[in-house]
Design brief:
Blueprint: H1 2-10, H2 18-41, H3 44-69, H4 77-92, H5 96-107, H6 129-134, H7 137-145, H8 147-177, H9 185-207, H10 212-238, E1 244-247, H11 250-256, E2 260-262, H12 265-271, H13 277-282, H14 291-304, E3 311-313, H15 314-327, E4 334-336
């Protein structure tokens, strides 16, 4: 990685544009504030028409919290923490501590690796033949015949709410399982802002005169919409790429389990860097503003080593990800080693000369 980092440093791509990060989130907060006001004052039918746009802007603000937790948005630690605190627990109701442990520590270290990456374990779904074999009969029936068909209309609207629930559960349990510093500063900050989130979203509007039915209904429907957007952003980065049993080259793992999504500048604006999933995994502290310039360098780095760098359009990635869900129950995990041998029965499923990417 030293050679790659040197090239990026020479082009100034390791610098973190603090002003751009804050400008983006403040403008989005202003826009979403106007949209929320419109939902309050306009008739229901107009609110429903506006909902996809409102959900998209809300999702983008939440995604900026992802940058803050990775310390890729600002030059200073305090700046990144402030940005993450604003976008995650306060605005989105998502625990920073939970996200850091699940995403930064576990997922980024072992993307798509069985028994190590929490993102490929989401009951009752399966992402591999290995998990399918350990499931009960009813769950196997669901995984084989239903999961790809009900995933988008039924499961994705729950994603935003389930992430929030998992974060709250993590925060409640943390003091009881910690061996020391049970109520440290980060826990207190996270917990306080989560309480503030629910007060601002669910209590304050009622105190100001809105009915609790409208307040709760808007909250549930809005964050269900956000769940669909979040799923579309995250799933295309890894679903349909190899599920890995073992590996011996971490940087190759980061590249070959990810996917670069080809978008125009408008689409890329809302992805907040996750259209460059490969680059983000190799260099998670790289600002999303610099990822487009870093991508050609990273692609060259991968191709020089003969590693599979997948680059597809968004709709193709959505299709491939959904198809991967349909066949996950019979898709075996692979072993990545330096001699390019693929084990665990993978080659039996491919024709002569056909690659994993094909």
């Amino acid at each position: 990685m030293a050679e790659l980092r040197k090239k990026l440093q020479e082009k100034g791509l390791l610098d973190k544009p603090t002003a751009k990060s804050w400008t983006k989130i403040l403008i989005l907060l202003a826009i979403v504030g106007l949209l929320y006001a419109a939902h309050i004052n306009l008739p229901l039918k107009w609110g429903l028409i506006l909902l996809p746009l409102t959900g998209l802007i809300t999702t983008t603000i939440a995604m900026i919290g992802h940058e803050g937790v990775h310390s890729s948005a600002c030059k200073s630690k305090a700046g990144n923490l402030t940005l993450a605190s604003l976008a995650f627990p306060l605005f989105s109701g998502l625990s920073m501590n939970y996200w850091r442990e699940k995403h930064n520590v576990q997922h980024h270290a072992h993307p798509n690796v069985i028994e190590k990456d929490p993102d490929i374990y989401s009951w009752p779904l399966t992402f591999s033949e290995e998990e399918y074999k350990t499931s009960g009969p009813l769950r196997r029936f669901f995984q084989k015949y239903l999961q790809a068909y009900i995933f988008w209309p039924i499961i994705t609207p729950l994603v935003g709410h389930l992430m929030r629930y998992d974060g709250l559960k993590y925060i409640v349990k943390a003091p009881f399982i910690a061996k020391k510093n049970r109520f440290n500063k980060m826990w207190l900050l996270d917990a306080s802002l989560l309480v503030a989130h629910f007060f601002l979203w669910l209590v304050l509007p009622v105190l100001l005169g809105l009915s609790w039915q409208v307040t709760v209904g808007f909250y549930v429907v809005l964050w269900a919409t956000v769940g669909v957007y979040l799923t579309a952003i995250f799933i295309v980065g890894h679903a349909g790429r190899p599920i890995v049993m073992e590996y011996d080259q971490n940087w190759r793992l980061q590249i070959e389990t990810g996917r670069r999504i080809k978008l125009g500048p408008v689409g890329s604006f809302f992805f907040v860097g996750l259209d460059y999933q490969i680059e983000h995994h190799l260099l998670p502290a790289l600002s999303h503003f610099n990822l487009p310039k870093a991508a050609p360098i990273v692609k060259e780095y991968a191709e020089e080593r003969g590693w599979d760098y997948e680059e597809v359009g968004f709709l193709r990635a959505l299709w491939d990800s959904t198809v991967a869900l349909a066949v996950a129950w019979k898709t075996p995990a692979i072993v990545i080693d330096g001699s390019d041998e693929l084990h665990a029965g993978l080659l039996e499923d491919f024709g002569p000369g056909q690659t994993v990417a094909e």
